[in-house]
Amino acid sequence: MFGCHAFYHIDDNLRTSKLNEKAVSGIYVGHLENSTSVLNFNTTTSKVVHHGHVQFIEDVDRYGKVVAQHKAPPTPLLDTSDQPELLTLPVNFTDCQSVPAFARVTGHAVYYDGEHERLGLVKVVTPESPGGVWVYFHALLHEDSQSNAAVKMIQYLVAHSAICNMNNFHPIFAQVEVKPKGKNARDKPNETAFIVSADSKDKNGYQVGYIAQRELGCQDVLVGQVVFPPILTAIHSPGPERAACHSGSTVPVVPTRQLSVTSLAEQAAIASVLEFCSVSAVSPSARTYSNYVEPRNYQHSQTFADAEQWEAATQSEVQSFIDMGVINPCNYNEIPPDMYVVDSRMIYKLKLNKDGTIDKYKARLVCRGFTQVYGENYDETYAPVTQLVTVRIVIALCLHFRLVPHHLDVKTAFLNSTLKHEVYVKLPKGVTLAGKMYGKAIKSIYGWKQAGHDWHQLQETCILGFDSRIRKSEVDPCLYIIVEGDFVALISTHVDDYIVASTEDAWYQRFLKAFSARFEVNDLGVLDHILQMSIEWQPFYKSVSISQHRYILETAEKYNLENIRPQQTPMEKGLQLTPALVCDTSLPYRNIIGALLWIARASRPDILYAVIYLAKFASCHDSQHFKAAKRVLRYLVTTADYKLTYHQQPKSEKLKIVTYSDSDGRAITLTGNRFQDQLCF
Description:
By secondary structure, the chain is an alpha+beta fold. The chain has 14 helices and 33 strands.
């Protein structure tokens, strides 16, 4: 908001002491044209400066008046002459023309000189300076520098994007294309380059360093020659094709057509980046794709390096609509004038296995059901899903009765149920059925308010109709059981995921055949992962363990807590928090509590009390509550390998529920005279 208080960050490399201020106070007065840099008015010096990393505090009543009471400079010169923090070069800086040999890039920053020019700086590890030395960015790209300098810079920026996906120094360090000029310019291809410096007073050009054509050196080019990528191309996107690398591992091969790669040097650079993304320099575990960002829509998916895989997933979804007769294609003029047309969009998801490797590319056509009208195009919406405790009980029963739990998945489940109302759909842009963009919905589509309800009713009818002995649980409506003498069968459903187990393999094969005749079913084998839980069965089913190692690390990585100090307890002893007077909505407190609740309910009861206690402050939290929530997550990272294990008991013993309680059930005071007993079942 214009006029709000803004603190712009001082890069750590430009601070001479750790006790110096980390930010400079200013007032937000706009954005720099053709840039993501923010313009800030310093009320002390009455100067306007720009920066890429800014924290806003919107207090219009106070700071709006401050802006009005100060006389602004006649022109926004972006003067930094009174900002000594931004004019200080790093202590270990070397002004060299080129960098003949170096091992890797370890840092980057921007230096503001006294003439309003912003110069890129990079920190490199050289044989002479193993601790790292700062040099100008244009020196790194000099033709006399190491031949793969641009490749190593790209590697560093890709690794850095996993921590911060925003270029705080834009346009410096931006990878762009430079249009040629002069005669026959249209017949010449664009050259890829880095922007190495920019003049705040000169709005007409940049200085660029070329990536492939190193002999061109660093040149000043006009703004009109520079082409910024409209969408960030996912050059580190995974693909199914693989190529062997020198380390013996495999890396994805990116189709060069989507990346517009025109030279062998660029291909080598991209291959090195992909290899870099697959080794421990970015991720020490198999979580290579945990930070992968899926396409927002169909057009966005076509800009990805793995566009062919997303296109195949899209066509597979469209083919499912055709094969199952979900939509009857039509033209817009064929739709009755009194009928409301519901929009739709494509949702893309990269499905991973329990070890973090790619399972499949998944595309889903989803309707915007929030535009539906009750009574006109939908009525019943209730659709139950199984509880996490039910899944654990089914796993424990399989262990006790020596059952083999099979994992089934129904493809495009919602598309099987017939729609009871007359609804017309507009297909997403770029997606057609028989060359038409509109259609009448014959069956339920993902996103309909009634889709879940209709699918649950249909699959329940099929399950109960398969065997007259099947009974639905009175506790969980998604659990179906048969107990008849020595014969036991269990069916647990969670939308389109099924756990099916029985004492007779022939009964399971008959069920699978009957279910597959009605729906398209994928038999995923013995249950090894479901609902973000990893299931490990010991030989001869002597025991089974449930863990969430990958999900815990992904959650920690999401909140930048993967490399932290170990924590041995989830909660501080005797912690007593009070509701915050002002809720700090800028903190992702509710998000982290939601993730912790899922982990606690699925496989980690040791954090359940701490999470429930912290969940009370979901609407009245501040930094103290957020700190306590992060402590729980730090504890989970420390103990990520912990597993919830069930051991097989003698078959002659009957199952029984045992309850444990602490010796003093009234030891923990919550609020006032209320107490909570500690029970474990």
